[in-house]
Backbone:
């Protein structure tokens, strides 16, 4: 049986390391001199109070923001500037704090869109939908159907995403990210705005993704219960500065963390 | 030789001939157990589909020959794990091929499968598994495994769980867990290695006797703790052969298995009839997709409880309200045409040419597309049972050309007691006695019967078996009813013990009143009180889909079920329904005195998880009377509102308390005489 909390996959080498990264917008320092690493197969949480720089950190990792200082090493390759599509090609997938799906398209099409990087036949073949293009589509559809089955959303396969409740949209977004078969999955508040039951479902899906596909996951989350149950290691940011890093238990006991969350008398 | 005869019967096209052949074939094969039937089907219908299942968005098919091969491997795999003749194997989960195969494989070894409802809470599961003394359980997925593991210390006999769906189970301790696939695979390998094993398995199949128990079905427990109904193979096959002949089912039919696997109806209609007739049973992708799968499969044989039919109709009606003006007009006009001619055409009664032509146009424009959307395009025979069905609802389906019929059955009868033959359909009767079924009405009005499939007893419970059997071998149904003088068909009034009287002596049949109210789409569930009281009062559950849609169209805002249920406008609407029911009751001589004087709308939905409904969604009257005692007291003490606090169980098993202040409304009753005049 699963040990309570934490990934079941053997945690291995460093997959991604962030070294001395600083990011500022004009005079505002969003992140200052933060370093941490993510190891292969683990579930890594990034937590912190509002405005601590968590989402900025994710945006830096997948190349949406370019840090003024510091280095990011992913799968042994160090880079200073990278575009989001390069990150996607490199095996980083993400979901967004505010769901970012194609609202008019069906669940199936949305998840199929996640496969677009893996499609190799050219535009004209795809236009004809014949021969290699058709074969390729069938193969991709197979993978997408596996994901639909995995996330138990068979009943909404043909429903336009805009008609779905929020909790399900989040699940579809996870599905689209999974369709990329990522090495690293970034989840930005996967449980924001969910009720308890939806949160429990989503937690189970996250654990299952980690277990079944062996995907490394970095997630931002506000619900401390969820974070403590899910993650192997937690990094805590406050005002753009890393104030703690360690297992959930260590982090929970850290006086700096308690101060950041509960406030201190100055 | 036999195969040739079977085929000629199929192609002769003469249904009457088939009728005899269906039974004759079963007898000819000397198939008195289900494994023997499976062998017969593999021989005769080898290449025809036996089972379909939608997986990864595609319908997978297994022929009878493939099914036999898999089940043989599975059975051998099970025997290597230690399953022995005579012991029980629990089967927990939804309608999935591997769980049906689990039933077959257990039966092949002479073990007795015990299906359990997939949504049973751990407590119920523990009771059944313990009572049935199961050493093995075939389960659907992690959810069921977790449930059983949570009560494992109460199940010392349970040795091994075998599961269908592996996800999430990888890190579990596998000393007592196996995948069904693995069991089948090991069995197949062993069979391939050692030919002697195949012969041994043949002997095992041959050693099965018709008089051995073939299954133990636990009742849903309308009246307290569930009981295990033991059915033998011989009797089950006899009963199924009768119904297969009655409705001319052949191996070319298709049914969708979407009702609980553990329910007698599913076991009978899909499993037993499927094996006897050799037809194809399709399993939906998941329970949520059943409606879409129904449409894709297009079954020819369909069963639905009244509630499902009602749900479908409500959904159609709501969507029609939202349709454009022209479509709406067209729909209502042709539904009117169908009301007028549809049923008579279905019953092959004479109808004017104009009527026929209008109906044909309607069929093209409305009924055909509607049936297609509902998945009823190919339905040849459809049944409904379990509860009284509203005449409106019943005739609606019949009028658009669905051959919907009623049957009356019981788990103990396995299953048919009465059924409506084609062409003799009345909405308020359940038909004449079924072939080979003997029915009598006891002095107290209770229906008693003897049927070919009747059970042999409750498992390990002779006392209760004796309670329901009369000394001369009839089963007491517990239902009150009578034979209609005009038609000779049976009419069911209510559960015999629920029929009571008001203080002034008026007959009070709660079901009768409840059903009249439940026929309104806005009302989901009703509980009526009146026995040994001065007047009739009811508690009503609104239907969230219908009332929610009404609220949306009328700009009524609400944040929760509780708020909507307590809304004054909702009360006004329900009050109109109650008034109409009172008018209908007033025109009925026997029931006129039992009009509804007061009603309230419940603040929460009645739920099986809270013990208020059975797993088959029947109201547990006594339990509700205790639980809502303050509300019932308020209904009778004249107060205009009452406070109530009820403990509820959430889907994840946690408990909470819902508090509410529920309003009560008084109703005017129709004077009996006036209504009688109006009716006259």
Residues:
């Amino acid at each position: 049986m699963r040990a309570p909390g934490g990934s079941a996959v053997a945690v291995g080498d460093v997959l991604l390391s962030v070294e001395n990264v600083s990011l500022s917008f004009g005079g505002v320092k969003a992140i200052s001199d933060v370093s941490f690493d993510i190891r292969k197969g683990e579930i890594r949480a990034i937590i912190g109070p509002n405005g601590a720089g968590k989402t900025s950190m994710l945006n830096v990792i997948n190349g949406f923001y370019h840090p003024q200082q510091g280095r990011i090493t992913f799968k042994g390759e160090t880079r200073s500037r990278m575009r989001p599509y390069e990150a996607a090609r490199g095996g980083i997938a993400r979901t967004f704090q505010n769901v970012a799906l194609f609202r008019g398209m069906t669940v199936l099409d949305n998840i199929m869109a996640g496969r677009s990087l893996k499609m190799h036949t050219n535009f004209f073949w795809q236009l004809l939908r014949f021969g290699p293009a058709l074969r390729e589509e069938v193969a991709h559809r197979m993978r997408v159907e596996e994901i639909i089955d995995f996330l138990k959303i068979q009943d909404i396969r043909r429903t336009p995403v805009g008609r779905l409740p929020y909790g399900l949209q989040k699940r579809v977004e996870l599905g689209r990210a999974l369709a990329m078969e990522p090495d690293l999955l970034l989840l930005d508040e996967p449980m924001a705005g969910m009720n308890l039951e939806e949160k429990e479902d989503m937690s189970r899906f996250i654990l299952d993704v980690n277990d079944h596909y062996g995907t490394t996951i970095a997630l931002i989350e506000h619900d401390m219960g969820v974070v403590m149950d899910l993650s192997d290691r937690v990094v805590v940011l406050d005002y753009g500065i890393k104030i703690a890093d360690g297992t959930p238990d260590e982090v929970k006991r850290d006086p700096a963390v308690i101060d950041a969350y509960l406030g201190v008398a100055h | 030789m036999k195969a040739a005869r079977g085929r000629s019967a199929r192609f002769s096209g003469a249904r009457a001939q088939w009728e005899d052949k269906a039974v004759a074939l079963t007898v000819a094969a000397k198939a008195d157990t289900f494994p023997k039937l499976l062998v017969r089907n593999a021989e005769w219908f080898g290449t025809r589909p036996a089972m379909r299942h939608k997986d990864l968005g595609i319908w997978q098919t297994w022929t009878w020959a493939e099914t036999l091969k898999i089940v043989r491997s599975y059975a051998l795999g099970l025997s290597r794990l230690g399953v022995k003749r005579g012991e029980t194997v629990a089967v927990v989960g939804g309608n999935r091929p591997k769980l049906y195969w689990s039933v077959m494989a257990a039966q092949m070894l002479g073990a007795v499968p015990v299906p359990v409802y997939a949504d049973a809470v751990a407590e119920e599961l523990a009771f059944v598994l313990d009572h049935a003394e199961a050493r093995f359980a075939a389960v659907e997925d992690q959810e069921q495994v977790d449930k059983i593991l949570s009560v494992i210390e109460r199940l010392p006999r349970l040795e091994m769980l075998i599961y269908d769906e592996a996800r999430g189970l990888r890190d579990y301790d596998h000393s007592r867990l196996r995948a069904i696939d693995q069991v089948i695979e090991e069995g197949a390998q062993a069979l391939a290695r050692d030919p002697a094993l195949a012969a041994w398995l043949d002997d095992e199949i041959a050693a099965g006797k018709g008089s051995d128990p073939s299954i133990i079905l636990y009742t849903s427990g309308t009246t307290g703790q569930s009981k295990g109904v033991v059915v033998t193979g011989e009797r089950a096959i006899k009963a199924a052969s009768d119904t297969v002949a009655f409705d001319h089912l052949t191996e070319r039919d298709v049914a969708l298995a979407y009702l609980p696997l553990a329910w007698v109806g599913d076991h009978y209609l899909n499993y037993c009839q499927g094996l006897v007739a050799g037809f194809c049973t399709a399993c939906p992708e998941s329970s949520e997709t059943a409606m879409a799968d129904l449409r894709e499969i297009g079954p020819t044989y369909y069963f639905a409880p009244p509630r499902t039919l009602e749900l479908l109709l409500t959904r159609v009606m709501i969507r029609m309200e939202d349709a454009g003006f022209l479509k709406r007009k067209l729909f209502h006009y042709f539904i009117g045409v169908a009301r007028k001619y549809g049923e008579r055409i279905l019953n092959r009664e004479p109808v004017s040419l104009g009527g026929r032509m209008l109906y044909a146009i309607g069929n093209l424009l409305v009924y055909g597309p509607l049936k297609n959307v509902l998945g009823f395009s190919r339905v040849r025979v459809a049944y409904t049972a379990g509860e009284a069905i509203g005449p409106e609802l019943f005739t609606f389906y019949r009028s658009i050309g669905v051959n919907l019929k009623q049957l009356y059955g019981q788990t103990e009868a396995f299953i048919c007691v009465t059924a409506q033959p084609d062409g003799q359909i009345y909405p308020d009767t359940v038909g004449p006695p079924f072939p080979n079924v003997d029915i009598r009405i006891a002095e107290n009005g209770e229906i008693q019967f003897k049927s070919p499939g009747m059970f042999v007893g409750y498992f390990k419970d002779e006392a209760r078996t004796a309670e329901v059997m009369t000394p001369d071998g009839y089963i007491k149904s517990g239902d009150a009813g009578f034979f209609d003088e005009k038609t000779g068909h049976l009419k069911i009034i209510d559960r015999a013990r629920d029929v009571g009287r008001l203080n002034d002596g008026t007959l009070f049949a709660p079901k009768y009143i409840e059903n009249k109210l439940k026929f309104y789409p806005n009302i989901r569930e009703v509980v009526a009180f009146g026995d040994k009281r001065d007047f009739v009062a009811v508690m009503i559950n609104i239907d969230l889909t219908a009332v929610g849609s009404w609220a949306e169209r009328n700009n009524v805002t609400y944040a929760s079920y509780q708020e909507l249920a307590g809304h004054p406008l909702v009360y006004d609407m329900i009050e109109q329904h109650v008034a109409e029911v009172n008018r209908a009751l007033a025109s009925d001589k026997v029931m006129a005195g039992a009009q509804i004087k007061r009603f309230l709308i419940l603040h929460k939905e009645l739920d099986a998880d809270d013990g208020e409904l059975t797993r088959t969604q029947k109201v547990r009257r006594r339990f509700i009377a205790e639980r809502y005692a303050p509300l019932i007291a308020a209904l009778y003490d004249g107060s205009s509102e009452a406070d109530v606090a009820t403990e509820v169980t959430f889907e994840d098993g946690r408990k909470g308390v819902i508090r509410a202040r529920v309003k009560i409304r008084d109703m005017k009753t129709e004077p009996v005489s006036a209504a009688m005049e109006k009716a006259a």
Remarks:
- Strands of chain A lie at 14-25, 28-39, 43-47, 69-74, 77-79, 92-95, 184-188, 216-220, 233-238, 241-246.
- The longest helix of chain A spans residues 132-150.
- The two ends of chain A are 46 Å apart (CA to CA).
- Chain A has a mean pLDDT of 87.
